[in-house]
Amino acid sequence: MAKSTVTSALAIGALALLGFGLTGCSAAQEIADSVESEVSGGESEVRDDETQEVTESGDLDVFKLAMGDCFNDAGSTMVSEIPVVPCSEPHDFEVYFEVEMPAGEYPGDEAISAQAEADCTAQFATFVGLPYEESALDFSYLTPTQQSWDDADDRLIQCIVTDEAAQTTGSLAGAAR
Fold first, then answer.
1. CA–CA distance, 112 with 110 (Å, rounded to integer)
2. Most distant CA pair in the chain: distance in Å?
3. pLDDT one-digit tens code per residue, 95-133
4. Cβ-count burial 53-78 (b if 16+ within 10 Å, e if not)
5. Is the pLDDT of residue 40 over 90?
C-alpha cells in the first residue's frame, strides 16, 4: 500500500471562489465548510473534536490518518482516501506505529520498504504483545510515494496490523495472538 496525493483542483478552485465571493454570509460559510470537508476527506465529520477518535465511518484523507485509527481495505495500492471506521466496528486494519523518514532526496521504494519492514517488525511485539514471528496477526504499512515525497513533503511511514483470517472488532493492542 502506498500513499498518493490526489487533490481535486476543481474542488480547491470552488472553495477559493466561495471564500472570496460569499464572505460574511452564514449560508456561504456552510457551503464553504461543505466543500472544505470534501477536499479534506470529511475529517471533521468522522473525528470527535476533543479526543480526535474516529467516531463515524467515512472517507478520510490518507494524510490525516493517525495512530490508533481503524480502517477498511481501500481496494487499491495507491490511495488518497481511507475508509475509516470506529475501532469498535468491524475493520481490516489498525495503525499501530508511525515513523518519520529523514528529510532529503527521495531514497527510493526499496529503501523506504526496508525502513518500514524494520520499524514495523520491531514495534509489532510492543503493540500486539507477541513477536511477529509467533503471532497469528500480520502487518503492512503505508509509505510515501515519489510524488507525495516531492509534492507534499510526505515522510511518514505508518505500520498497520491486520488479522487476515477475519475483520477485527476492537483494538488489537495487547491481543497476544
1. 5
2. 60
3. 999 999 999 999 999 999 999 999 999 999 999 999 999
4. ebbebbbbbbbbbeeebbbbebeeee
5. no
